[in-house]
Amino acid sequence: MKEKNNILLYVLGLLAGLIFSFIYKISTKKNREVITKSKNNFEKKVDEREEKIINYVQRYGRINTKKCKEIMGVSEATANRALSNMFQREILLRGGAGRGIFYYLKNINN
Within a domain: residue 15? Predict the structure, then answer.
């Protein structure tokens, strides 16, 4: 009787594992589709944090990740993502290389 119970528990465990892995695959596929769509459909709207960046760049001409981190009050990774996102949306242009990368506003007259 114990052997039958152990086999039944083993089979139920395998079945539960298959069901959860199937659900996980479906959910991650949907998440990937949403992320892809959001990357391809950038909007030029700016949020409150991005307004701080734009105001700083208008005043001082350029901004780097370190200064962005300070004015936004976020981590360096978050500041870098914000600047890169604005660059991809063509709100900012990028100059420099490596650790010397900086961002500046796109010239509206050109």
Answer: yes
Strand stretches in the chain, DSSP E? 92-95, 102-105
Q: Tell me the pTM.
A: 0.57
Question: Does 100 share its domain with 53?
Answer: yes
Do 37 and 52 belong together in one domain?
no
Q: What's the average model confidence in pLDDT over 7-26?
A: 72
CA dihedral 19, 23, 29, 31 (to 10 degrees): -160
Domain holding 18, by residue range, is 1-41
49: number of Cβ within 10 Å: 16
The CA–CA distances, whole Å, from 69 to 52, 65, 73 equal 11, 6, 6
Q: Give the total number of structural domains in the chain.
A: 2
**Mean pLDDT for all residues in the chain:** 78
